[in-house]
Specification:
- Two copies of one chain form a homodimer.
- In chain A, α16 links the parallel β17 and β18.
- Chain A has about 900 residues and is of the alpha/beta class.
- Helix content of chain A is about 45%, strand content about 20%.
- At the A-B interface, α26, α28, α29, α31 and α32 of A face α26, α28, α29, α31 and α32 of B.
Chain lengths: ~900, ~900
């Protein structure tokens, strides 16, 4: 057995046992505190109980490690000596804060217990040492409330009610109007209430309090909220949390005290300005909880009339913060998120970590820092997460669109979204599962709301600042979010909110949020996409990405419009042009239905001949939009019955249009029904049983190609056969294609070069890829169907059990979101190897939703594909993800 | 370029250019003729045009190879000199027979053209040389009919009508009553009719006739019937046919002439007796066509009163045949099928080939020949095809069952079958595709009927003998068949037949055939299986198979009855005991439905508690039946909605039984519906979302095991988790199983050893088999689902396109019948390798229908599985197939 790992790391008075690189052991907060201490930045002394101790706690059946509290006492002695006060000393008590802190910041865990060490003895000492009995009793009641809530599990609300009662009895409305005696009486009432709930007294022994708080932090690692958050963010369960125990500093010791948070650059825009908020005479929790609206630390952003800034109110303290900002950014070479407390004019830093930022800010900061010489190009690229770009590229309000603004709040997380109003996280989840876009409206959010926030398109809160829970979480999720919208009042019981201008909005009404301006608008408002061409920093990042990546990026586009959008976003061709959507167009679907229900080959052929001109026009538009770039067109894939009429009205309309009898239409429609249509008569199976359909499509593609080529536009058509599982399927259809192509070329008097390839989307196709590659000129992996058939899950039917699988941790991320490397990926690898062995230089790509997922793109790079294809808005994401993959490979 | 292959091989007068081993070149018939010639057996002289010539014919776009007819003329000169007659000589014309002959005997190809060389000149020579003008003109008209039909494609029926007209005009009923002049007149009429149909005269030039006949044989290789037959029998398309051209001998030159067929042993029973039939004064086609009922060659079998045998009528010729029989069996060491013609007392052999035989006969002959020292054990094993045993093991009429015999025919192919009567092959195919068992009733069958015969359970013909088309084909297919049932008269127009006792049976009525006795019975008659234990020869073959095979053979059995049957057939355990059938039992399904629709865990648990005793009883019976042998029980697999009520009556009944509201039942049933249930919430996914169901099953299995073990019966339960695709699914469920098992063992105070393993039936499971094998103690390949997901075909939905695939030759044999080695087999191979690497000695088997298919069993042997599991009646088949696999491996 190896020596037990170190469980306690002290810091204080300019020296720390830990440092910034020890996040695994100390958690993010602990590592930041150690690093700042070593840098000589003022940090209240304390120590960190390591994640190893938490791991031991769980390993031994949720028991604090033996001997841990002895080590804690030892570390505490050092803190006492630096702070000049003793823990539990009735005369001059040392008070502690206890905070959780995992490697990754994690809402949902126990956050903080403040003022620990207070009891009926030490409260007097605190009153004396601060000279402020009211402060001391107020601190004590805060401690009882907090400790009761997060450590003992006592409901907060009865205690809040006691305070309300006391204020009513005293005829006052503000907490600040209560006196020391009021607070003392309330503490007594609180203690009684806690004792009656717990059937044992509130712990008065400071060490018992501390032991309880440490255990509570460990426990909080596995609350459902924390587990949910980790699952959402792909954080492993076995990294555990550390516990940070520090000497208390007080931001609520009068008007020369304050507490606040700051970012070394603007986390929303990335601008190089010092950005932050503070609350005078307050404890830190007041800022985060969003109960009082904080003040700006400076005038780097417009400030409402009559509002003073920290810079104005406490210029010396602000100067210290500015200096801290300079040193930390220089040291970490990245934007930092800071927490500070000013106690009677003296600045103490309570946290420093790499700041979360919007995509906008990430891009700006990365580009700026290269300009400032702080980082190099590759580092800058890695500073922007591909998944963040999605947020950045999400639509914004079209400035020219008419809008009806009913309220305005703080712009907390950008993006513009329309949705139906809901007022509870449960309703948000329920409606979004039904396919509704929803906007979650709350007074303020709390960690219980996470699932609802995740389900919503956007979030609107009445209270809280830019660093409130709602704002932080929404930015992390890349959700559009407006906070602190004090112009609305939420009536939860009536499921409505009313604006200060008197407009009432009810559950289910549609509103639009603009997270970039804070505007709340009634109804649906026109939006537009970001244009990376016209965004200098984003353009720079993507340009760097293009320098670095090896993978080509194509797009999935079914229309000329999509094709143009994608091309603007940098698409280098179309990897998947689905033709079924072209069949659903209103004026065509009647023809398609006639074609399917035709009794004879001649009838079917006649219907197809009338569809041909429509398809040809579609392809002409697409080829023009993609001039000079390859366009992969997938021939018809879905089962024919998907096109057939389902309602009585549709049957009637078709009967009128076609002259068929309704009964015949119904009978034939029934004949097309299948028990498992996903595994039925579709894809190339249709092409083989009804060659005339594919021939019509081939004719449309190649006639369009010839027509566009005659305009001196380069066309590179690639004809893709879906759902091949047998070599001979492709051989058969390639001959059909060649035959029709020759007929087209004879007819038009012009030849265009084209390729014939296949979707690889069935397990058998991967295994016999060598044989298929003898015929196929390219492979495009359809990893959606490949995932479905490899796992034997139909995506549409898997919901009920996949939810259970996530709960019991059988799967982490859905394999429909991120490609399963072990199984599905192995098939892809086998297919690439065998395909290339049979046809050296075989072109390979991936189409379908994995093509826009950064982790899946990394896999595609590793396995040596030539390109990925994704939806137009994901193209910039894919460009950056491909660059990341190349950089990570180079770093190996 | 290599030298052109030899295209003509001559034989005659004791010397032949070919020999028996040259079937590839000469076809079966040509090789037999050459070998017999070399053995000094009397064979009419002739030559064989090789299969290479036929291949050339197709390669060059259906043209006879250049120079071939010159070579034919050369070979013909040798025949002329042996025969002492000249082809086309008006005085003493040589007449020829032209017969097709591929490597494998193939109904559906052009069979024979006789009397070739006759024309208006040579007919006179034939009259003179035979001294029989009537014979000569009759031969000429036969030739015109045959040649017109098979070479020129002229409809036979108008010609038959002319004969009928002439008979009517002459007031006679039999062909034999027509005179030479009648036939001469008819020939004129025929020639006119042919000329008017073809718009050109009937070819009178003998060489033109011969060239046409050779080309017709080549063409007949690709008739739809021939293609169908090859597909059915797995015969490659590119082996082609040879053409045998021989001097004519005549069995219709009077009462001292005859023609017949014989087998050196009884092809139905295998008994060592000379068995055959002949027609006096007839040409060979008359026997095969089954138009006249032939006579027996001897009294080795009971002969009806008043019937004379060949032995009695022509003792010298019979003696020659006996000698031929002795020499050929000694030479070929296998039972031979002979065709002979006796021309004016002299015996000529026209064919000799390995005789087709029933399974019964194959077994008997193989065992007898080992006893006679003709062959060794391994040869004997390889002489019996595993697929034949299926036939042998097919049910026979229970001798104690009541039966209502309405007619009696000749027992042509054994087995007892019940089905609905149909009168056309089309109807047979249509009804059998709808799932009906059908009996095809025909006056006589012809090659056009093959598809219908294949679709039928049994075949009944009114005419024809044991060697008629129906009998030969049915034996080849292992179908129950009764022929020559002259007691019935078929009214095709009215879709009915009437027995001589006046009973009318209509299309759709159910009858039972006993192919072993020739009985035709009304309605369904009780049947029973063959018992290999009590069949000496079969027991011997299976005993030899057990000595040779490496694979273990288990069975799929869901009931104690099935288990006992399988054990009698040699099963060495149960490889798949499905539990869903236990749930469908009438008295249980209501409980199952309540369980599924339960609102709460408690309600569900209560319903499960009531199902438990039923399941336990099932398992007790199965464990007793399989005492000492392993029993693999698969936990519940199908989606729950399969159990839910579908009809209004079922909903009503459930509402009454359970007290639930009908509307709730309907709503919940709808909630369980899935778009693709095969890929839905089933298998282990159910076990994970509803652990209480699997726990109930585990409890039932292990409580039963403990109970049976307490009777001193060895139980070896293996619990199998279906549909695993993720390692953690199995980990999760193995823990559940272990937990429940411990509870059972605590409860019963007894422990039994058990294993937990998994079905490997999804592609991903094969790829991550290493991980799964860390938890699984055995793998059982569910190749049915694995085939469905690998190909992305649902078996139930694939019918329409698989039919097209067979037509356009994209697939040969359905992958649901014979395991696809290339794709699905590759996954099995990967899984076995990875599984064994992770867990050395991992037990592996296959369950599902491939487990009873000989080719698939060979694959299982090659890939190193431990066992195959198949239905009880297939167990002997599997034992023999496993032995064949081992022998073939040893021969490599």
């Amino acid at each position: 057995m190896t020596a037990a790992p170190q469980r306690i790391y002290t810091f204080g008075a300019g020296r720390a046992e830990g440092h910034a690189a020890m996040k695994d052991v100390l958690g993010g907060k602990g590592a930041g505190l150690a690093e700042m201490t070593n840098l000589g930045i003022p940090v209240p002394p304390g120590f960190t109980v390591s994640t190893a101790a938490c791991a031991e706690y769980y390993r031994t059946g949720r028991k604090l490690p033996a001997g841990l509290m002895d080590e804690v006492r030892g570390a505490l002695a050092a803190v006492e000596s630096i702070a000049g006060a003793r823990f539990g000393d009735p005369e001059n008590p040392l008070l502690l804060s206890v905070r959780s802190g995992a490697k990754f910041s994690m809402p949902g865990m126990m956050d903080t217990v403040l003022n620990l060490g207070l009891n009926t003895d030490t409260v007097g000492g605190l009153a004396r040492s601060t000279g402020d009995p009211r402060f001391a009793w107020d601190s004590f009641r805060r401690f009882v409330q907090m400790y009761g809530d997060v450590v003992l599990g006592v409901n907060r609300h009865p205690l809040e009610k006691l305070i309300e009662g006391r204020k009513e009895a005293r005829g006052v409305t503000q907490d600040t109007e209560l006196t020391a005696d009021d607070w003392r009486d309330l503490v007594s009432a609180f203690l009684e209430r806690v004792e009656s709930q717990l059937r044992r007294p509130f712990p008065m022994d400071p060490y018992e309090q501390l032991e309880g708080a440490i255990a509570a932090v460990f426990r909080s690692w596995n609350t459902p909220r924390a587990v949910f958050y980790r699952k959402e963010h792909g954080i492993p369960d076995d990294i555990y949390t550390a516990v940070n125990v520090q000497a208390m500093v007080f931001g609520n010791l009068g008007d020369d005290s304050a507490t606040g948070v700051a970012f070394t650059r603007d986390p929303a825009t990335g601008e190089d300005l010092f950005y932050g908020e503070f609350l005078p005479n307050a404890q830190g929790e007041d800022v985060v909880a969003g109960i009082r609206t904080p003040l700006p630390i400076n005038r780097s952003r417009p400030v409402p009339d009559g509002v003073a800034t920290l810079e104005e109110l406490m210029p010396a303290a602000y100067g210290t913060l500015l200096e801290v900002r300079r040193r930390l950014e220089g040291h970490f070479r990245d934007m930092q998120d800071l927490e500070f407390t000013i106690q009677r004019g003296r600045v103490w830093m309570l946290q420093c970590r790499t700041g979360k930022r919007t995509a906008r800010a990430a891009v700006r900061i990365a580009v700026d820092m290269v300009g400032e010489g702080l980082i190099d190009r590759d580092t800058a690229l890695l500073r922007v997460q591909p998944s963040q770009l999605d947020q950045l590229l999400h639509p914004t309000i079209d400035p020219k669109a008419p809008r009806h603004v009913i309220a305005r709040g703080l712009p907390a997380s950008p993006g513009a979204r329309t949705g139906k109003v809901v007022f509870t996280p449960e309703e948000a989840v329920a409606r979004s599962e039904r396919g509704d876009a929803v906007i979650l409206v709350r007074r303020e959010t709390s960690p219980e709301d996470i699932a609802g926030m995740s389900a919503a398109q956007g979030i609107l809160t009445a209270r809280g600042g830019q660093t409130s829970h709602a704002a932080v979480v929404a930015r992390g999720m890349g959700k559009c979010c407006v906070v602190g919208c004090s112009e609305i009042s939420v009536a939860l019981d009536e499921k409505s909110f009313t604006t200060s201008r008197g407009r009432t909005v009810r559950e289910g009404d549609e509103i639009t949020l603009d997270g970039a301006t804070g505007e709340v608008m009634l109804g649906r408002v026109g939006v537009q996409g970001v244009d990376p061409e016209h965004d200098r920093e984003l353009g720079q990042v993507l340009h760097w990405a293009d320098e670095v990546r090896r993978l080509r990026i194509r797009t999935n586009a079914d229309t000329p419009d999509d094709a143009r959008t994608a091309r603007r976003f940098g698409a280098e061709g179309i990897g998947l042009c689905r033709t079924e959507h072209m069949f659903f167009d209103e004026e065509r679907v009647a023809l398609v239905r006639e074609m399917i229900l035709a009794e004879t080959f001649e009838e079917r052929k006649a219907a197809l001949d009338r569809i041909l001109p429509f398809q040809r026009r579609d392809f002409e538009g697409i080829f023009r939009a993609m001039a000079g770039l390859p366009v992969t067109v997938r021939l018809l894939d879905p089962p024919l019955h998907e096109f057939l009429p389902t309602t009585d009205a549709q049957v009637k309309a078709l009967a009128e249009h076609s002259g068929m009898r309704e009964a015949d239409i119904r009978r034939k429609t029934r004949e097309h029904e299948e028990a498992n249509p996903m595994l039925g008569h579709r894809g190339c199976r249709l092409g083989i049983s009804h060659p005339e359909i594919y021939r019509m499509q081939v004719r449309a593609i190649l006639e369009a190609a010839c027509a566009v080529a005659s305009e001196e536009i380069a066309v590179l058509p690639e004809i893709m056969i879906p759902l091949v599982s047998i070599e001979k399927e492709l051989e058969f259809l390639k001959e059909e294609v060649a035959d029709e192509a020759e007929a087209v070329f004879r007819g038009t008097g012009r030849r265009v070069a084209y390729q014939v390839g296949t979707m690889i989307e069935l397990p058998r196709a991967c295994l016999v890829a060598g044989g298929i590659a003898r015929t196929a000129e390219f492979f495009s992996f359809g990893t959606n169907d490949l995932t479905q058939t490899s796992y034997g899950f139909a995506r549409d039917d898997a919901g009920p059990f996949l939810r259970v699988y996530e709960e019991v941790k059988i799967i982490g991320r859905s394999p429909f979101v991120t490609l399963d490397r072990e199984g599905v990926g192995e098939l892809v690898r086998i297919a690439v190897e065998r395909g290339r062995a049979a046809r050296p230089g075989l072109k390979t790509g991936i189409c379908g939703e994995h093509g826009g997922d950064p982790d899946s793109i990394a896999f595609c790079h590793e396995v040596g594909l030539d390109y990925v294809s994704c939806s137009p808005f994901r193209v910039p994401v894919a460009r950056l993800a491909a660059a990341h993959a190349a950089l990570r490979e180079a770093a190996k």
